[in-house]
Design brief:
The chain is α/β, with parallel strands linked by helices. It contains seven helices and 15 strands.
Length: 237
């Protein structure tokens, strides 16, 4: 799931964009902000993949915030969402990856999210994709992907579950999904990424969803209704 912050001083605009993002099933809106100061506070509090940023706001504007974020070691991706198309050239000068004009259309939003996934995937290139760095008693441990049964997102962290152990990672679930998909991992739920090779049992539950039982795991993994068909296809069912 892509982790996003919405920054816009108008409540209806924030609500509409949150609704559209929720409908895609690809984005977890971790915070909202009404101005630059709040945006910076929320960015410090949450690991964020992308910021949907209005340009015209009271006080410092979105372009100024985007320029300031360029100085961060790991800045979020920026997508401007504004009613003013004349700012497009300036937006790309501050390294925005896309520019959406209000009212935002779903097809256009999906194209922007495809760009986000591409950038997140590209950011992991050059790393050893078959091993994931995790926190372990103040040290970094590299966990082989074939040891991972599933990964769960909680708050601003990802938790990698192996047989008998659980490890914390600060890498977002969206980045892990992009990185691990070639290794047989599948996003079954906004909070869960599973190793398909570890699935032992699939049980139908009410509402057209499923519960997965994984090898060596007591916890059942939910499959969201919108992911059922694609999971069955991935498993050849």
């Amino acid at each position: 799931m892509i982790r996003a912050i919405i920054v816009d001083d108008e409540a209806p605009a924030r609500s509409e964009l949150r609704f559209l993002l929720d409908e895609t099933g690809q984005v977890d809106v971790v915070a909202e902000a009404i101005n630059v100061r709040e945006a910076i506070e929320q960015l410090k509090a949450h690991n964020t993949d992308v910021m949907f940023l209005d340009i015209s706001m009271p006080g410092a504007n979105g372009l100024q915030l985007a320029e300031a974020l360029k100085r961060l070691k790991y800045p979020p991706l920026i997508i401007f969402v504004t009613a003013h198309s004349e700012h497009a050239a300036k937006a790309f000068d501050v390294n925005a990856i896309d520019y959406l004009v209000k009212p935002v259309e779903t097809d256009r939003l999906l194209k922007a999210l495809t760009k986000v996934k591409h950038y997140l995937s590209s950011s992991t290139k050059g790393q050893q994709a078959d091993r994931i760095p995790v926190e372990n008693g103040g040290k970094k441990l590299l966990v082989s992907t074939d040891k991972i049964h599933f990964i769960m997102a909680k708050d601003d962290y990802s938790y990698l579950h192996t047989e008998g152990d659980r490890y914390l990672s600060t890498v977002s679930l969206a980045q892990l999904e992009a990185r691990l998909e070639p290794y047989g991992f599948f996003r079954v739920h906004r909070r869960y990424l599973v190793n398909l090779a570890c699935i032992e049992e699939i049980a139908p539950v009410s509402g057209g969803t499923l519960l997965l039982t994984l090898a060596g795991e007591e916890e059942s993994i939910p499959v969201s209704r919108r992911r059922v068909a694609s999971l069955k296809k991935a498993l050849g069912l």
